[in-house]
UniProtKB/TrEMBL annotation:
Residues 21-79, 80-139, 140-196 form the Sushi domain. PANTHER family: C4B-BINDING PROTEIN BETA CHAIN, PROTEIN CBR-CLEC-78. InterPro entries: SEZ6_CSMD_C4BPB_Regulators (IPR051277), Sushi/SCR/CCP_sf (IPR035976), Sushi_SCR_CCP_dom (IPR000436). It comes from Monodelphis domestica (Gray short-tailed opossum). Residues 1-20 form the signal peptide. The lineage of its organism: Eukaryota, Metazoa, Chordata, Craniata, Vertebrata. Keywords: Disulfide bond, Repeat, Signal, Sushi. This is Complement component 4 binding protein beta.
Length: 250
C-alpha cells in the first residue's frame, strides 16, 4: 500500500507516486488538496478544498481495478467557504455578492404570508457547512393527507389552520383521529385508517373449568337482569366471596 499527496491549487500540481504499483491518478480538482491511497490497483482519492472554497460533489472517489473506472465524477471546489445561502420567498442580511467566509453569520426572514421553517440564523462553520441548517420559507400549506383505503376525507383546503375530516365506508370503523388540523405545513396527527368493524363477542371466560365459567356468567346475567347498579353488583360479589370462603373452611 502506498499513499501520496497531490495538491492542485489553481495550477494543478502533482506529487506523483514514486514507483512500483501502477496506480492511476485521481482527476485533478482546482483549489483542492488531494490525498490518494493505492492498494492492489484500487485507488481512493479524498479531496479537501483549500480555505475559502467549499466542495460540491462527492468528497471521495474510488477507482475500481476491474472496471477500470472511477465510481463518480470528480467534485468541484467552489469559491466561498460555505455555499452562498439561498432563501426563496424570503430575505437575509447577507449581500450575496461576496464569497462566504468562515464564521460568517446570516439571519433570515420570510416574506409576508410565508412561514420560516428552521432556524432564523445560521453560521458558516469550519467544515464548510451552515449550522444550524439553512431554513426555508413555506406557505404553511399542508400536503394532501393520505386517503384511507376504505374511506375518504372532506376538506375545504389544506391551508394552515384548516381541518380535514375523515369518514369510513359502511361496515368500517375509523381508527385514529377523525379530524386533522393543518398547522404551519404539518398535520396535527397521523391520518386515521379504516378497519372492518368487529362483531362484538361475548366476553370470553377465563376459567379453565367450563361449568364454573357457565355458572359465573349465568350469575352475572342474573344480577344484570335484576337491574343492579355496579356498586350493588360489587357488594353482592363480596357477599358471594364470603359465602364461598365459609364453605371452604367449614
Ligand atoms: C482549473 O483552473 C485552470 C487555471 O485557472 C483552468 O484553466 C481550468 O479550466 C480549471 N478547471 C476547471 C475544471 O475548472
Ligand atoms: C484488484 O483488487 C483486488 C482486491 O480488491 C485484488 O485481489 C486483485 O488482485 C486486483 N487486481 C489487479 C489486476 O490488480
Ligand atoms: C468493480 O467492478 C466490477 C465490474 O464492473 C464489479 O463487479 C465489482 O463489484 C466492482 N468492485 C467494487 C468494489 O465496486
Ligand atoms: C447579520 O446579522 C447578524 C446578527 O444580527 C450579524 O451578526 C451579522 O454580522 C449580519 N451579517 C451581515 C452580512 O450583515
Ligand atoms: C430569531 O428568533 C428568536 C426566537 O425564535 C428571536 O428571539 C430573535 O429575535 C430572532 N432573530 C432575528 C434576527 O429575527
Ligand atoms: C379545526 O379544528 C380545531 C380543533 O378541533 C378547532 O379548534 C378549529 O376551530 C377548527 N378550524 C376550522 C377552520 O374549522
Amino acid at each position: 500500500m502506498k499513499s501520496w499527496l497531490i495538491s492542485c491549487i489553481l495550477v494543478t500540481e502533482w506529487l506523483l507516486p514514486t514507483s512500483g504499483e501502477d496506480c492511476p491518478s485521481p482527476p485533478p480538482v482546482n483549489n483542492s488538496i488531494l490525498v490518494g491511497t493505492c492498494m492492489e490497483g484500487n485507488v481512493l482519492g479524498t479531496y479537501i478544498c483549500i480555505k475559502g472554497y467549499h466542495l460540491v460533489g462527492k468528497k471521495e472517489l474510488l477507482y475500481n481495478n476491474t472496471s477500470l473506472e472511477w465510481d463518480s465524477p470528480a467534485p468541484i471546489c467552489h469559491l466561498g467557504h460555505c455555499p452562498i445561502p439561498v432563501l426563496v420567498n424570503g430575505h437575509m442580511n447577507s449581500s450575496n455578492l461576496e464569497p462566504v467566509s468562515e464564521g460568517e453569520v446570516v439571519t433570515f426572514e420570510c416574506d409576508t404570508d410565508y412561514i420560516l421553517k428552521g432556524s432564523n440564523w445560521s453560521q458558516c462553520q469550519k467544515n464548510n457547512m451552515w449550522i444550524p441548517p439553512l431554513p426555508i420559507c413555506s406557505t404553511g400549506q399542508c400536503p394532501p393527507p393520505r386517503k384511507p383505503k376504505l374511506g375518504h376525507f372532506k376538506a375545504r383546503d389544506f391551508n394552515s389552520g384548516s381541518n380535514v375530516t375523515f369518514y369510513c365506508n359502511d361496515g368500517y370503523q375509523l381508527i385514529g383521529a377523525q379530524s386533522l388540523q393543518c398547522m404551519d405545513g404539518e398535520w396535527s396527527h397521523e391520518p386515521p385508517i379504516c378497519e372492518k368493524m368487529e362483531v362484538k363477542k361475548e366476553a370470553s371466560c377465563v376459567f379453565q373449568e367450563n361449568n364454573i365459567c357457565e355458572t359465573v356468567q349465568r350469575w352475572i346475567q342474573y344480577q344484570k337482569a335484576s337491574g343492579q347498579t355496579l356498586e350493588e353488583l360489587k357488594y353482592s360479589l363480596e357477599i358471594k366471596k364470603l359465602q364461598l370462603e365459609k364453605i371452604k373452611f367449614s
